[in-house]
Amino acid sequence: MKKQILIVTLIFLQFGFSQEEKVITKMDRFVSNTGSIVKLENFYMPELKGYSEVAKVQVRRATSGGVVAFFLQIIKEDKYGNKNASIAEEDLVEVIKAYDELVVQSGSEETNADYFENKFTTEDGFQIGYGGGKNRVWFLILEKYGKSTILFKGHELIGDALKEGLKKIESLKL
C-alpha cells in the first residue's frame, strides 16, 4: 500500500512540474516591447568547446525605444531546435563572481558523496557549476525548461568565455 501511495505521489509531482509555465527571461521581456522598433545586433565570439559539444558564443546588443541592453548568449545547436542562454549584462557580472568563487571552492572540495553538485543559478535559469562523483566535471545548463547541458573537463574555457564576453560588452558601450 505504501508503495502505491509513493508511486501516485511521484506521478502527481511529475505532472505538476511538467505543467509549469515558462518564465519570461530578461531578454524576452526586453525585445517584446510592442509599439517600438527593436534592433538586434550580434557580435560573434570564439566557440566554447565542451566534452562532445561545441557552443556558439555571441554578445547581443538589443535596442528598443532608444534603450540599449547587452546579453551574452551561449547557443547549443540541436537537431530539434537550438538551446540557448541569454545572460543579461548585470547577471553576467554576478555569474563571473560566482564562477570565481566556484573555482576557489573546487580547489578544496572534499566530499565522499557518490554524487554532488556545486552550482550558481541566475534568475533566468542559466546554471554554472561542477560536480559528479569521482570524476569531477564542470557544466553549463542553458535553459530552465527544456534543459541542455554542456560538460567540460575543466573550468578555464568557461571562465575565458564569460570574461571575454563582458570585455566585449564594455567595448561596445564606448
Number of helices: 4
Outline the biggest β-sheet.
Answer: 4 strands, antiparallel
**Average pLDDT, all residues:** 84
Text of the CATH class: Alpha Beta
Q: What integer value in Å does the Rg equal? A: 19 Å
* Global geometry: elongated
Strand content: 35-45%
The helix-and-strand class reads alpha+beta
Going across the biggest sheet, name each strand in turn: 1-2-3-4
The helix/strand series, from N terminus to C terminus, equals: HHEEEEHEEEEH
State the CATH topology.
Secreted effector protein pipB2 fold
Tally of domains? 1
What does this structure look like?
The protein starts with a helix and ends with a helix. Helices cover about 35% and strands about 35% of the residues. The longest helix is centred in the middle third of the chain and has 19 residues, at about 90-105. The protein has a single domain (about 25-170), classed as Secreted effector protein pipB2 fold (2-Layer Sandwich). The protein has a four-stranded antiparallel sheet with strand order 1-2-3-4. Mean pLDDT is about 85; it is low at about 1-20. By secondary structure, the chain is an alpha+beta fold. The radius of gyration is 19 Å and the shape is elongated.
